[in-house]
Specification:
globular; 5-stranded mixed sheet; alpha+beta; 27% helix
Length: 806
């Protein structure tokens, strides 16, 4: 061998393919302030829009007077529901099969609801204009408590639904009822509870919170009257879906709508659906003939865009005295706010909450979910989770701890006793899912050994004795969480949005010189797609990742895809990328065989090209194949080297993890200290370990925020009392604990590269780990369950209620 010939290791290293800790290529522009966000879009003659918003949670709109507003210098128009009715745009469909006011039509149903849209020459004039619009309201009784929503005397919220006894998801049993969704065998489950030796029952509430991305929701709409074309730049997690929604609402032919999602400063589910700002900016551009920009502020984002969670879960487990679970029964009261605007697949009104059996082998289970309306902002999006999976994981993980407490059994040992065993996969759960693969006990034991779990329990016991003797005012909790997530929506047989199957797509085009471009139907909001997608291609077809450009977010160039949310990028788009690359490799093999004058079957793949079996010196690199694809292909073959793949997954993927949180709490102040947080994730094949670690760090920080204080809270009149970062907990580097990450690898058997996805996992597993740590700390004082969030005041209040504080 020539000394200058690269070794196999050098060739693999040059590719920077899967498994490589490749640095994020996006960061080159981001760290230099060269990102291109929606608010960076500035067009000639661009106007600005802003909303008049309701101070009331529930009121009739008696009159809107825009006389003085139109006198403000720079104000050009004031759009109201009456304006929108002239073009049949006063109401818009939601992704959940409901309808939603674009602007208040006769009533307002939540505080800060959009009432009128002021269009002006700049943001300052628009702000002056909204302060001059006079709205006359007739206040109505607000409905804030979800447990009172279906009382006989509860106020009627949705007058537009009067007389409608059936909704998009079946019968409605009250004027504030949206749907009832059930799954599982009720009779068999009830029988299991009648025979049970031990049962627990607890109301486990997952409070309302908000994704609060760094960049708020915003758009620029520009209508070309000559061409009849509408171009929209926006903070869209699913640009193609937005294009289709706009076509359906505005009746503009879809080929004349161009949607562009540039760089996005975080999404977390908040930027999946359509908001009134998008519709109003589009209408304003059509009316004025000029581009119109809408950018919401932080208070608007927190109080009026899509919330997350607000699930109230009555949870029961049946078991033997030895701790073997025999049945699960859950009823959920789901607070959807004023409109049902959940971003769930159409057939799943409660998302994938039926993953609530978790990682455990329940022989039978039954689930019922009632969705209701209240005078709160609509939403219910998958905030760093897959369609209500975070709620489900919190529900079962708290319940397992409560059962362990009743049985006087260690919570980790209870989990080990009930895990689905490796030989049971593919596993069919009692609530209808087919888990693809897992080795739960191995992950749990690795976590326990790493943190020296037995020693922690001894330390905790000693500290409790010291507390009883009055030698310390600190209590210690060890929070165990083991989650199984369901991601990768999804198979067309059961997943669609607005009737569009939830596939995803990739187009790869290789150039003559051996570089290429990949256009993908996903849309990164910080996940690092430009880095990892190129790594998949590098491994599959032997072109260095640095020579692959990744493009997303432009509906004119990217193949139709369903976007990025619910940890579906790698399970679905990543699979489409691999399949497109394999189509290219198949054609490349035919070209190589032709050039090397052998049969295709005589070739084998070797890192970055093909070689003849038994003649390793006879090779052709992918770079050379690319050149040949444009000048000397086999007779009858089309020139070029490109492929498109639309991937419809055969099943979801099921990542899992074991998390352990160690926390001390001062009972006199409620102040907590997270001493250690260990997170083991199994996401199948690992594409880029560095990006995985970053995703886990980010997800755990959000889990920490949610569990320990982040909440959208309303007073009795429907006022949002946590509507800014002064009151809504947003952890900084000062408050955020140190994260310790680890992994096991259990590939998905049905995914082309064995990957499962990881972006949502740390939020799914992190929240119950924190909450279990707090509850474990207080359990020896007689507590069974303390609701989240666990801020300092609530911790002190719990200690006081339990008699630990005078």
């Amino acid at each position: 061998m020539n000394d200058m010939t690269p070794t196999r290791e050098q060739r693999e290293a040059k590719l920077e393919g899967m498994g490589c800790k490749r640095k994020r290529v996006e960061d080159i522009r981001f760290t230099q302030g060269k990102g291109n966000y929606v608010d960076d879009v500035k067009l000639p003659g661009m106007l600005h829009g802003d909303f008049v918003r309701s101070p009331h949670a529930h009121a009739r709109v008696k009159k809107i007077d825009d006389t003085e507003a139109l006198k403000v210098p720079g104000v050009l128009a004031v759009i109201t529901a009456e304006t929108l009715k002239t073009v049949n745009l006063a109401w818009m469909p939601t992704l959940a099969g409901d309808v939603q006011m674009v602007l208040a039509d006769g009533k307002v149903l939540f505080q800060n609801q959009e009432v009128a849209f002021v269009v002006a020459t700049d943001r300052y004039a628009a702000d002056d204009g909204i302060n001059k619009v006079v709205v006359e309201y007739e206040p109505l009784p607000p409905l804030i408590d979800p447990f009172k929503a279906m009382d006989a005397d509860a106020p009627v919220l949705r007058e537009d639904l009067a007389g409608k006894t059936t909704g998009a998801h079946g019968p409605r049993k009250h004027h504030n009822h949206i749907f009832e969704w059930t799954v599982g065998d009720k009779d068999l489950t009830d029988a299991a509870f009648r025979k049970a030796e031990v049962t627990i029952k607890e109301m486990i509430s997952y409070h309302r919170t908000h994704p609060s991305p760094l960049e708020t929701c915003q758009c620029v709409c520009s209508f070309d009257k000559i061409k009849g074309e509408l171009t929209i730049w926006g903070t869209f997690q699913a640009p193609h879906v937005i294009r289709t929604v706009v076509a359906l609402i505005a009746k503009i032919p879809e080929h004349k709508i161009h949607v562009i999602a540039p760089d996005i400063g975080g999404g977390f589910g908040n930027k999946v659906g359509a908001y009134p700002g998008y519709i109003c900016a589009a209408v304003a551009s059509i009316v004025t003939g000029k581009p119109v920009k809408w950018v919401e502020d932080r208070i608007e984002n927190l109080t009026a865009t899509s919330f997350a969670r607000d699930y109230h879960m009555t949870t029961e487990i049946a078991s033997t005295k030895e701790g073997k679970v025999t049945g699960l029964r859950v009823h959920v009261l789901a607070d959807h706010g004023a409109f049902d605007a959940c971003a769930d697949p159409s057939k799943w009104p409660a998302g994938f909450f039926n993953i609530v059996t978790g990682s455990y082998d329940f022989p039978t289970a039954h689930l019922a979910v009632d969705g209701i309306y209240t005078n709160k902002a609509p939403g219910g999006v998958a905030y760093r989770c897959s369609f209500r999976v975070t709620e489900a994981a919190y529900c079962i993980e708290r319940a397992m701890d409560i059962l362990a407490q009743k049985l006087n059994m260690d919570p980790a040992e209870l989990r080990l006793k009930n895990f689905i065993k490796p030989e049971q996969f593919p596993y069919h759960s009692a609530l209808g899912w087919e888990y693809d693969s897992g080795d739960y006990a191995t992950a749990m034991r690795k976590a326990m050994e790493t943190v020296k779990y037995a020693e922690l329990r001894k330390e905790q016991a000693a500290l409790r004795e010291a507390f009883k003797r009055g030698e310390t005012r600190e209590i210690m909790g060890v929070g165990v969480s083991f989650f199984t997530e369901i991601v990768g929506a999804g198979p067309s047989k059961n997943c669609d949005i607005l009737g569009i199957a939830m596939f995803d797509s990739c187009e790869i085009r290789l150039h003559p010189t051996g570089a290429g471009i990949a256009r993908v139907g996903s849309k990164s909001q910080g996940q690092g797609h430009e880095t990892t997608w190129a790594q998949i291609i590098a491994t599959e077809i032997g072109i260095p990742a640095d020579d692959i450009m990744v493009e997303e977010g432009n509906t004119d160039t990217a193949p139709y895809g369903l976007g990025t949310y619910g940890s579906r990028s790698t399970p679905v788009a990543g699979a489409a990328i691999a399949m497109a690359a394999r189509k290219i490799k198949a054609k490349a093999q035919m070209i190589a065989a032709y050039k090397l004058e052998v049969h295709e079957g005589d070739l084998e793949w070797d890192i970055d090209g093909f070689r003849v079996k038994g003649l390793p010196e006879k090779t052709m690199s992918m770079k050379d194949i690319c050149w040949a694809a444009y000048n000397s292909v086999p007779p009858g073959m089309e020139p070029g080297l490109e492929a498109v793949s639309y991937y419809d997954p055969p099943n979801m993927t099921y990542p899992f993890g074991a998390y352990i949180c160690v926390m001390n709490i001062d009972v006199d102040t409620g102040v907590y200290k997270v001493r250690r947080f260990y997170a083991l994730d199994d996401c199948g094949t690992r594409i880029n370990p560095m990006i995985i670690e970053g995703q886990v760090h980010g997800g755990l920080t959000e889990a920490f925020a949610i569990a320990m204080g982040q909440e959208i809270r309303y007073d009795a009149d429907g006022n949002v009392v946590t509507g800014s970062f002064m009151d809504f907990f947003m952890p900084t580097a000062v408050e955020t604990p140190h994260w310790e990450t680890d992994f096991t690898v259990t590939p998905s058997p049905h995914h082309p590269i064995g990957a499962k996805g990881v972006g949502e996992s740390p939020n799914v597993g992190g929240v119950p780990a924190f909450s279990n740590a707090v509850n474990d700390a207080f359990s020896f004082l007689g507590s069974t369950h303390i609701q989240m969030p666990h801020d300092y005041w609530r911790n002190w209040k719990a200690a006081k209620d339990l008699g630990a504080v005078a």
